[in-house]
Design goal:
- The termini are far apart.
- The chain is built from three helices and seven strands, in the order ααβββββββα.
- 41% of the residues lie in helices and 35% in strands.
- The strands form two sheets. Strands 1-2-3-4 form a four-stranded antiparallel β-sheet, with helices on both faces. Strands 5-6-7 form a three-stranded antiparallel β-sheet, covered by helices on one side.
Length: 180
């Protein structure tokens, strides 16, 4: 009596149903896999372009950050040069010589949004402004654009880090110019 119960399973899956379920799972997962491979290929190509640009400028980046698969910033402290791109996929990079910069400051553009009785601040832009010796904005480095992205993903912390790094390098350049 118990032998019959033990030999039969709760349900039987035939080979055709099992194969069909496997195909459905594979069909569901395939677009995710293809997309992940595509993103990795784009990132690898962007890294190659960035490395060749940095090498062509004769730079060695001591600190660097990239975020949102869109932005990049790096600094060569020995040569006092910042490398920046707001569109790494296009491969457009620029070199900023810190000898031309007197100071750096964070620029935050926001507006108030009213939700009934409460009001909150909504960030529109987050930029790092590099000011020259004539007190003009020489460079504006975009860290966040509210038109393209709906939320911050660490840009506030990142911009503070880079403000401090650039200030330290600018101070070092200023001291070297005074001595030299």
């Amino acid at each position: 009596m118990f032998g019959d119960i033990a030999s039969t399973s709760m349900f039987d899956i035939d080979l055709i149903s099992f194969s069909f379920a496997g195909l459905l799972i594979a069909a569901f997962a395939l677009p995710f896999y293809v997309h992940a491979r595509k993103i990795k290929l784009i990132a690898r190509k962007a890294l190659s372009v960035r490395n060749s640009y940095v090498a062509s400028q004769g730079l060695h980046l001591h600190d660097q950050d990239s975020w949102r698969n869109q932005y990049f910033i790096g600094i060569d402290r020995e040569r006092a040069v910042v490398v920046y791109s707001s569109d790494v996929q296009a491969g457009t990079y620029s070199c900023i010589h810190l000898q031309e910069v007197r100071r750096a400051s964070v620029s935050e553009v926001s507006h108030q949004v009213a939700d009934g009785k409460k009001s909150r601040k909504e960030l529109d832009r987050l930029d790092l402004k590099l000011i020259d010796y004539q007190d003009r904005i020489a460079y504006t480095l975009e860290f966040y654009d509210g038109e393209r992205y709906s939320d911050l993903v660490g840009e506030a912390v990142l911009i503070k880090k880079w403000e401090e790094l650039i200030k330290a390098s600018v101070n070092q350049v200023s001291k070297a110019q005074l001595v030299g």
